[in-house]
Design brief:
about 150 residues; alpha+beta; 4-stranded mixed β-sheet; 7 helices
Length: about 150
């Protein structure tokens, strides 16, 4: 379980982690959060607000971590932290995967959903890079060349 706080710390340093109630709410309402994480000992009101944020975010998955507020805060350089939101699909999928390895019954569905989203995002990113490379090199695509041959 030590890898989850280190992943969260890495996401925080990368600027892909919203920490606290107000930043998490803003990220969720902007539809940029993929995974909302709650500390195991979060208050009932915090849990209720987190579920409202997930509903506002449409795509956001809400999970309760097996870590306390103090453990989450220490990995982020704060005293305590009850609510986090990850706005990068790669980090979200990695955290869900680590959680699912520890407890597949609880976190398996979230891991599957986030890994599918991550795969689609990677495919779109690769297609965009290939398209940009084609534009830079000036190569024509195969269907376009065939169409030009037929016109000759």
């Amino acid at each position: 379980m030590d890898s989850i706080p280190s992943l969260l710390g890495l996401a925080f340093r990368a600027g892909r982690l919203a920490v606290g109630e107000e930043p998490v709410g803003a990220v969720c309402r902007a539809h940029k959060a993929y995974l909302l994480l709650l500390a195991h000992d979060a208050a009932d009101n915090t849990i209720r607000r987190a579920h409202h944020f997930c509903q506002a975010g449409n795509n956001t998955i809400c999970l309760t971590l097996p870590h306390t507020k103090d453990e989450l805060g220490s990995c982020l350089g704060r005293t305590s932290c009850a609510m986090l939101a990850i706005s990068d699909i790669g980090f979200a999928a990695a955290v869900a995967d680590k959680l699912a390895k520890a407890d597949p019954d609880t976190y398996g569905d979230a891991r599957d959903q986030l890994s599918q989203k991550a795969a689609r995002a990677k495919k779109r990113r690769d297609e965009k890079r290939a398209h940009e490379k084609t534009l830079r090199t000036g190569k024509k695509s195969a269907p376009r060349r065939e169409k030009e041959k037929r016109n000759i």
